[in-house]
Amino acid sequence: MAAADPPPSPPVSFGIIGCARIAHKVSRAMLLSPNSTIVAIGCRSAEKAAAFAKDNGFPASAKTYGSYDAVLEDPDVDALYIPLPTSLHLHWAVLAAKKKKHVLLDKPVALNVGELDEILAACESSGVQYMDATMWMHHPRTAEMKAFLSDERRFGQLKAVQSCFTFAADKYFLENDIRVKPDLDALGALGDAGWYCVGSILWAADFDLPKSVLALRGTVFNSAGVILACSASLHWEEGKVATFYCSFEANLATDVTVFGTKGTLRFHDFIIPFEEREALFSTAEKSGFTEPLTGWEGKPSQHTVITELPQEALMVTEFSRLVGSIKFEGAKPEKKWPSLSRKTQLVLDAVKASIEKGYETVEIVS
User: Fold this and answer.
1) Which of 148, 157, 280, 362 sits in a 20 to 30 Å window from 23, CA-based?
2) Any signal peptide, and if so, which residues (predicted)?
3) Contacts of residue 195, Cβ cutoff 8 Å, sequence gap at least 6
4) What CATH number is attached to the domain comprising 99?
5) Which of 107, 327, 343, 352 is catalytic?
6) Could you confirm whether 332 is annotated as catalytic?
7) CA distances from 69 to 59, 158, 242 (A)
8) Which of 134, 169, 186 is the last residue of a domain?
């Protein structure tokens, strides 16, 4: 007789601290994921926590607390999701790690790489898994696009990347949202939207850090000195270049174009797909003009990727798999995700420094 398959591991138990808007989406992902569940949520009031749990369909057994500390002290919590303002990440992520809670941290993950290094050191010391909540990285489309970029026969060598994330914030957002408050999210649009742009560029470049960064003139600040819009160029020693633009002042756009010597990749909804269960991208290979310059040959072709679970649920599933392998199989934390966060933060820091230095070129030192 064939040996029976081992029983599946129990689901990873999540606690959540904070009732931010993004927590609605990620808590839904935890409920959709096959290997996770929600056991606790803490907000600044017990009433708010209870209302959040009810409104978002939490299990009846989920505990609701009127403080963040209570979630960290709960022995049933394996992993902590932290959707708090960036200025609070250092304190709560380090404390979570010290309490042996695995850390799923919303982006931007820190105000600078020094803070992030403290978070990562605490996670490594406690042997807990760290991951930032950049959801698009977990969509199956991302893997399919990477396969095209990695095909030297079709794409060739990477030469350039262009990325943008913009949305037109309303008056209330520009006056009240945490992302425009210097004491809460001091990086503003650079941290919120620029995180995605920089991440997409590094992804296209196989997370090879650029040699230098140059912020482009025209940065827009609010009256408190928080960035509302900015752009920058990234430069590699071998001649690759990239540019990005992020803004709270322009119509919604989330576009990435990757240019190779033989092919081109484009996708227009890289942060949140136009449709939850499918995502598109286009590729072109060996394109040129027809004679007598009246059309194209090597026209772009469109590809559709279907997924049963939305990308945020796939993110939770992967994070929970890593946590489960540590908890139930004695595995070590996966180091890929801390490394990717740190490289993204290094570039953000360099862009900010370039702006502050009057748009001087800033070398990146890892």
Assistant:
1) 280
2) none
3) 107, 108, 134, 344, 348
4) 3.40.50.720
5) 107
6) no
7) 21, 47, 42
8) 134
